[in-house]
Amino acid sequence: MKWTEQEVPGQRGRVAVVTGANTGLGFETARVLAERGASVVLAVRDVEKGKRAAARMSGEVTVQALDLASLDSIRAAAAGLRDRFPRIDLLINNAGVMYTPKQTTRDGFELQFGTNHLGHFALTGLLLDLMLPAAGSRVVTVSSVGHRIRAAIHFDDLQWERSYSRVGAYGQAKLANLLFTYELQRRLAAHGSTAAVAAHPGASDTELARNAPALVRLPLTWLAPAITQKASMGALPTLRAATDPAVLGGQYYGPGGRFEARGYPRLVTSSAQSYDDGLQRRLWAVSEELTGVKFPV
């Protein structure tokens, strides 16, 4: 089956929060959800860009300031969302950075790990009690095929203070997204209402790879028409994970084509280490300690 955005069921009456929704995959995800009737919040670092993105969408779309590289900003955004909504049905943890030069967040975390994993971990924990009572609610976290590339959780140097690899740090962050999803689903299973699901966009033509080393970026630029797909296609696994009634908690969706680089979304599997219960629990404990956020499950 070629699962397209036309398969997204009506979302009227539902509230969806999409991080990083002013461009690329997040924009396409938010656009479709809004067109299907959801009340969509674009949770973005640059509010003016968010407003311009919202103006290009149809439906009920609002903007919330959110900088995932700042725990203070995350707490303020969560407080703002709690003031505006009695419940949240969909939380799409989409925003991210990739292959950045060595930098830290405002709280001193390595930028890719701090933004892609710890930021979304904290946001989810601060909003989850608004989701638990909502029937069919889902937390969808966007990972990457990069979770297989030079990927490990470096518990002895999570912030890459001794040495730094752009690719390794990205792999760690994207692996962390999956470990987080699977452990969250294990904790949610007893509640029976909210599900945690993961997705990846394959090789999508977005701004995300702008920081890739030249050795990677230039071939991608030359070969882009042959090996990448549009952001609207790359968003389909996320949309399916968020809205397909047949999706189960703990599943992972990605493109169905060769090497999962392109194609319509289907159920896929992640790396062996992403399913390691011990890693999941250890990362969870460390993430709670680093962020100061405790989950209600």
From TrEMBL:
The keyword Magnesium does not apply. InterPro entries: NAD(P)-bd_dom_sf, SDR_fam. SUPFAM superfamilies: NAD(P)-binding Rossmann-fold domains. One of its GO terms (molecular function) is oxidoreductase activity. The keyword Glycoprotein does not apply. Belongs to the short-chain dehydrogenases/reductases (SDR) family. This is SDR family NAD(P)-dependent oxidoreductase. It comes from Amycolatopsis iheyensis.
